[in-house]
Amino acid sequence: MKIFIKLCIVALLFTACEDTESVTFDPSSGQTGIGFADSVIDFSVPVGGVTNTVAVFSTTVSSQDRTYNVVVDADMSNVTASDYSLGTVLIPANSHEGSLEVTFNYDGLEDFVQNILVLNVDVPTGESAFSSLTYTFLREFDINEFVCSSDYQLIINLDNFSSENTWELTDGTGAVLYSGGPYADGRRGETETVSGIALTTGCYTFEFFDSYGDGLFDGVVEGDYNLVCGAQTVVSYASGVGNFGASNSTDFCVN
User: Fold this and answer.
1) What are the residues whose beta carbons fall under 8 Å from the beta carbon of 101, sequence distance 6 or more?
2) Could you report the per-residue pLDDT of 59-109, keeping only the tens digit for each?
3) What pLDDT does residue 105 have?
4) Which is it for strands 33-36 and 128-130: parallel, antiparallel or unpaired?
5) Using CB atoms within 10 A of its CB, is residue 219 exposed (0-12), middle (13-18) or buried (19+)?
6) How far apart are CA 66 and CA 145, in angstroms?
7) What is the mean pLDDT of residues 43-61?
8) What is the mean pLDDT of the chain?
9) How far is residue 73's CA from residue 96's CA, in Å, rounded to a whole number?
10) Bridge partners for 85 per DSSP
């Protein structure tokens, strides 16, 4: 039933697009119109890329498999050829429905930029294509490739026994680059801010310690900490997620 409804829509669209010639909608002998099931697909591209499969419909059937190339509308698209790779439309024998696979590459995309790729089916003479497909997509933000244009800040919301707390930030070799604590007791609910933490490209480990072994929990209040750069949080331990015990370690990389 769903395919029948889609084919009826296809037929109506096909008829509307033909101003000079009437269309005979007959699965065996009618004119062939090819169109995408979707007109717009909006998504984000994860690290490593992603392949999207979209359905394609034909107003007719054939006793043989049919394949069609797809072409990019360069005037409507703003991506380069290295950002994607196109498959071909395959409509199996004796079927109205086929599919197209489009693979989107992650590495060449820029953060926070909307990308547009508009595709059309390339049909031979005597057949017609309609309902172009528009992909709009963003590159997913990867914290492991985070670029910080300023120094980092460590923000600690303390419990009542801050003398139990210390921390270290080490590089990939284990060398301690920055460290802090212990702090004064009796500062429940207060914030300790450490500024001027400068990190270059590389991978690091941030580790927070509690000598008593009950994390940032003093029996009443559970504290938290965040290593941030501007509005972006790079390392976080949130209150209410459970006592981390004697230590809590987080690995991260910056570009």
Assistant:
1) 51, 52, 53, 87
2) 999 999 999 999 999 999 999 999 999 999 999 999 999 999 999 999 888
3) 95
4) parallel
5) exposed
6) 43
7) 91
8) 85
9) 25
10) 103
Nearest to 192 by CA among 164, 222, 217, 159: 159
* Number of alpha carbons in the 13 Å side-chain half-sphere of residue 108: 11
How many Cα atoms are found within 13 Å in the side-chain-facing hemisphere of 178?
17
Phi, psi of 143 (to 5 degrees): -60, -25
Residue 9's H or E segment, with its range, is helix 2-17
Phi first, then psi, for residue 111 (nearest 5°) are: -65, 145
Measured at the alpha carbon of residue 149, what is the angle toward residues 143 and 150, in degrees to the nearest 5? Answer: 105
Residue with the larger pLDDT of the pair 21 and 151: 151
Instruction: Check if the beta carbon of residue 135 is closer than 8 Å to that of residue 41.
Output: yes
Rounded-to-integer distance, Cα 95 and Cα 63, Å: 9
Give the mean model confidence (pLDDT) for residues 52-59. Answer: 94
Give the HSE-up count for residue 254: Cα atoms under 13 Å, Cβ half-sphere. Answer: 22
pLDDT at 9 over 50: no
Ramachandran angles phi, psi of 59, nearest 5° = -75, -15
Return the bridge partners of 99, or none. 55, 90
Provide the CB-side half-sphere exposure for 65 (13 A, CA): 6
DSSP reduced 3-state for 232 = strand
